[in-house]
């Protein structure tokens, strides 16, 4: 059986990233992420958002890996980003009940910043193997006007429900 664990989502940060530096010099950025599905309410006939909340973590990896630094510097509560990563199942023993607990999270490997910059429209990409640089360029913008799609080929934000 083939093994493939890949997640690509567009959403918004639900809280400020929390960063921690390790004694080895590594760094992790943890943040909450929300995505939304749209479904039609059968009683009212209206479209409604159905939010899903996901915990994410991103690491500085490798010689040029600065993904956690990029998230700490450019991503804030409410920021819209594209997350590219993999699912990971965290398991632990509940301290109060002693029961086994678990939850899925996303280990982020690459992001694209989708919010407009303060000095102009567009978005950018940061981190990841596809660019060959895990520190990320945040100057990869399409100058085609307000609401422009990221130059990396993403879609505009007009059809995103949140």
UniProtKB/TrEMBL annotation:
PROSITE patterns: SSB (PS50935). Residues 120-135 have a biased composition (Gly residues). Keywords: DNA-binding. Homotetramer. One of its GO terms (molecular function) is single-stranded DNA binding. Residues 143-152 have a biased composition (Low complexity). GO terms for cellular component: nucleoid. It comes from Telmatocola sphagniphila. This is Single-stranded DNA-binding protein. Signal peptide: none annotated. Residues 114-162 are annotated as: Disordered. It holds the Pfam family SSB. HAMAP family: SSB. SUPFAM superfamilies: Nucleic acid-binding proteins (SSF50249). GO terms for biological process: DNA replication. InterPro entries: NA-bd_OB-fold, Primosome_PriB/ssb, ssDNA-bd.
């Amino acid at each position: 059986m083939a093994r493939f664990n890949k997640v690509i989502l567009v959403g918004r940060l639900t809280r400020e990233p929390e960063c921690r530096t390790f004694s080895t010099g590594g760094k992790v950025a943890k943040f909450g992420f929300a995505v939304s599905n749209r479904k039609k309410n059968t009683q009212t006939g209206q479209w409604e958002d159905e939010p899903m909340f996901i915990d994410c973590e991103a690491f500085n990896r490798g010689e040029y890996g600065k993904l956690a630094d990029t998230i700490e510097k450019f991503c804030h509560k409410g920021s819209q980003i594209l997350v590219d990563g993999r699912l990971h199942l965290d398991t632990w023993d509940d301290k109060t009940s002693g029961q086994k607990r678990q939850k899925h999270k996303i280990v982020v490997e690459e992001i694209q910043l989708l919010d407009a910059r303060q000095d102009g429209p567009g978005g950018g990409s940061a981190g990841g193997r596809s660019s060959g640089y895990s520190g990320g360029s945040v100057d990869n913008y399409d100058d085609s006007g307000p609401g422009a799609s990221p130059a990396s080929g993403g879609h505009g934000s007009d059809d995103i429900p949140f």
